[in-house]
Amino acid sequence: MKRKTYTTLAAIHLGSEMLRLRIVEYRSLSRIKVIEQCEYPIRLGEEAFKNKSIPFSMVEEICQVLQGFKELMQEYGTDVYTAQATTAVREASNKVFMLDQIKLRTGLDVTVAEMPMEIYTKYVAIRKTVRDQHISSDKGLMLLDISSGGLGVSLVQDEQIRFQENFHIGIIRIKESFNNYQRSSLHFNKALMQFLSSTMGPVRKALEGQAVKYLVLSGTETELLLKVMGIRNKNKVQRVTTEDFRNFFEKVRKLNLPQLRKTYQLTETEAELALPMVLLYEKLLDLAPAAKEIIITSDTFLDGLILLRIIREKDENYTRMLEEEKMSLVHHVGEDYEYDYRHVTQVERLALVIFDRIGKKYGLDDHCRLLLRAAAILHDIGKYVSMRSHSLYSYQLIMGTDLLGFTEEDKQVIAMASYYHAHNVLERDEKRVPELKSELVPVVAKLSAIIRLADALDRSYMQKIQQCKVTLHNRELTIEVVSKADLDLEEWTFASKVLMMEEVYGFKVRLERVESL
């Protein structure tokens, strides 16, 4: 019997307006074949944003559709699947019961993507499309992803993420923020523009003076945007000059709902979405007034789900590239809080030398390594608020920041590891630092212990250590360092910080200064 050389993957997206299934066969990132796809319209967003819950009748409908998807997956001999829900389910008060019903009735595990992960999943697909189109980020790319309930704004320059912010102002959410009477008012356009201006104001200030050549638009409503603009071809990427875009906006924003329907032959539902969509896009253009061209992509959350799975499994180089992009954003967060770049990069370097020697042996995987890097970079940002209580404020600033591509649990590990680099694991400000889930305690303790030692080895903030080597033998960890400078402060601090490492890992730790490695 001939051995199967490809993997069959099914991806399901439970979105705010549509249930989608795509089944692909893949051998590598460059060899992906779609063998089945189907979608089912279901308007969860309006229910979730208006009533804060999804009614039983819709849950019943979702289960029936998902059961049909499962049967298709079985017919195609699916090897693996991923199923995720986004904004509407995420914000529904009854999501726990809904997901439980899905599991009991279909056997499918559906997870809920938090907003930073939802935006990042689409970001991965969009960035690949942009690269495939040979559109360089050298002169600035601003990615604007609009969904039914959210907006992600990402600025990429020289292959680094310089800015990223997420907002709860998607198209359907905007529509549901105003009732029918308000939307029919002659003053609605003006009121909506003021609403959007007040929301986007802080972003405009943060991006002021940034060079942006291209605006990249994506999201659930781009198909409607293209229809209204009269662009009918089915290319994955459409390119429009900023001047043409503005002329189009100037025409549309003067029309009320009946005029929109008549002029562009829209349904009532499409017309109700078209006006807030156009006004939102117009405001987003103001974020990059010097942009010359608009790139409109058809990339979806489902595209990103599939790509992320295949990239992580099949393409180590691409995985590393994505990780470095995420780290570039972490550095940008550090810059916002005036971190000491030379100190944190030294701490990161030394922490990784220790991690790479002991990590896998003590149950830490590559994802933990990424979390360690982020914690090393951000561990001191609380000094921007208070030198005396900097670790507490590092925790609070990290928890209050959207970190693209990191889950809330990831962020908690990063924040706690940053907090505990200056505290013992059992010490905690109970009023301002919540208790960790028990399953996270070991990984936070292990990462904190490493950062404590790495930070101690640069206690002077002078990067005295030029080389470092770590060995583990007979339950004794030896850290050998090379330095031409006086290391008394580092050695004393190291001795005071070593206890956590010994307690958490169960071995003795010794620092040794050598002439060379």
TrEMBL record:
Alphabetized Pfam families for the sequence: Ppx-GppA, Ppx-GppA_III
Gene Ontology MF terms: pyrophosphatase activity
Record InterPro entries: ATPase_NBD, GppA/Ppx_hydrolase, HD/PDEase_dom, Ppx_GppA_C, Ppx_GppA_N
SMART domains: HDc
Residues covered by the HD/PDEase domain: 336-432
CDD domains linked to this entry: ASKHA_NBD_PPX_GppA, HDc
Family stated for the protein in its record: Belongs to the GppA/Ppx family.
Name this polypeptide is given: Exopolyphosphatase / guanosine-5'-triphosphate,3'-diphosphate pyrophosphatase
Organism, scientific name: Succiniclasticum ruminis DSM 9236
